[in-house]
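Sequence only, no structure available. Ideas?
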Amino acid sequence: FAPEDDEELFSGGTGYLIFSDIGAPGYPKSIEVEGRHRDVAEYYAIGGPGKIGEVDLEAKRRVIRPLGQWNTMEIMARGGKIVTSLNGVPISKIDKHNYNYAGNIAFQIQGRKVSWRNIRVKAE
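Reply:
I predicted one. Tokens follow.
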């Protein structure tokens, strides 16, 4: 990853907010799964301690596709744990978090055009 690759083509932000309290004033308390290319699949506790969880950088570097190509992301949240896979490979996880309430799923866009396709939500 060269930071300038991301800055020039995609300086905006995008992400997936899970356990989102979208009814609260201000930015919603949630866990953000980052969607921006250089930070993809990293976690941020919004309304909490900030950056959390573990990321396998080697796996991420190996499987991420270049800017302009589609990546597939799967986010699984179950039993207080979260695992995010990129292009079929698990690359980040949270073993424990304090967002233990029913919340919404939200899509974040900041500063640039973003496209999604084939979105699926499965409740278990």
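The first strand starts at residue 13 and ends at 20.
Hope that gets you unstuck.
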